[in-house]
Amino acid sequence: MSAQIVEPVAEGSAAAGRDLPPSMVERMSLILDAFESPAARLTLEQVSRATHLPRSTAHRILDQLVRLEWLSHTSFGFSLGPRSLGLGGGGRADTELREAAAPYLHELQVRTGLVAHLAVLDGPDVRYLDKIGGRFAVRVPSRVGGHAAAHATALGKAILAWLPAERVDEIVEARPARLTKSTITDLALLHQELHRVRGRHGVAYERGEAHPDIACVAAAIRSPEGAVGAVSLVGDLRAPVERVAPLVLRAARQTAADLFPEPEPAPAPVRASTAPAQPTWSPATMDRLVADAASGAWA
User: Fold this and answer.
1) What is the tens place of the pLDDT at every residue in 90-142?
2) Residue 271's pLDDT is what?
């Protein structure tokens, strides 16, 4: 029988008197479960209290999760990382992303009559989380849970545009697969296209690159740490997707604002004034008041 390794617990710590989960997987799960929403920001002390793990143990596991991109670490603390928020992750993060985007996808579809999509990056592909459409929907070869090549879709390019160039190189093969005669199959040309996406404030287009009869416009849903997904509108090859681009960009930004609200700024400190107090009345008025008091006019 192998001996169970028990880590020392400092007296008075949050974990004192509690049994630690025996496996590393359970401890990692405890920490990830402490982040109750995509917008959650936790310090090391908050993670330790929420999980009842010793501070040293929590710190070591947090570092490992950051290295593996399950978590991100910024000056605000720890938060869910790319893999948890869709770049290979799923589950709760996907559900919350879908719930946040749902009203905006519905509004996009109703206002334009085009097919609205929500997707996340999943390896070299995008994975569809939602699809809302009218009569044209059956002609769009996509389905919830299905995949499409990221380099050939507006959804994929909208997300890839906000990743470091070296990360794009890792995700996309050195020679991306050709799906139609319009597909970008050169990595250098793809980087040029991603540069243009950033120049359009994150709006990505696709005309016949993934499917010969489809046009699409997309924009990424961005967290403080990067893109967590994208929304799009799809029509036939003649659809004026450029005209509806502002609507798509607004929907992506509204979804991001709901998922990642900005913290309210701290109120500015009130400083005591060092300037001498100014009289309420003019000198002439003060002279008259003093004269009246001296003459007994107020008696």
Assistant:
1) 566 788 888 899 999 999 999 999 999 999 999 899 999 889 886 777 778 88
2) 58
Alpha-helical (H) ranges within 68-145 are 92-112
Q: Give backbone dihedrals phi and psi of 16, rounded to 5 degrees, phi first.
A: -60, 130
CATH number of residue 119's parent domain = 3.30.450.40
**Alpha helix locations (H) across the chain?**
24-33, 44-51, 55-67, 92-112, 154-160, 165-171, 187-199, 245-259, 283-295
- Who contacts 12 (Cβ-Cβ below 8 Å, separation ≥6)? none
Together in a domain, 73 and 100: no
Evaluate whether 113 touches 140 at the Cβ level (below 8 Å): no
152 and 213 together in one domain: yes
Tell whether 286 is covered by a domain.
no
Whole-angstrom distance, CA of residue 59 vs CA of residue 51: 12
Residue 149's closest CA among 175, 177, 129? 177
| CA 295/CA 175 separation, integer angstroms | 102
Tokens of 21: 């989960």
Evaluate whether 58 touches 49 at the Cβ level (below 8 Å). Answer: no
How far apart, in whole angstroms, are the C-alpha atoms of residue 284 and residue 288? Answer: 6
How many domains does the chain contain in total?
2
pTM of the predicted model as reported, rounded to 2 decimal places: 0.61
pLDDT digits (tens, 9 = 90+) for 45-82: 999 999 999 999 999 999 999 888 788 887 668 887 76
Cβ–Cβ < 8 Å for 93, 86: yes
Question: Is residue 238 in a domain?
Answer: yes
Nearest 5°: phi and psi at 76?
-85, -5
By the 8 A CB rule, do 158 and 202 touch? yes
The whole domain housing 187 covers 92-259
Same domain, 100 and 242: yes
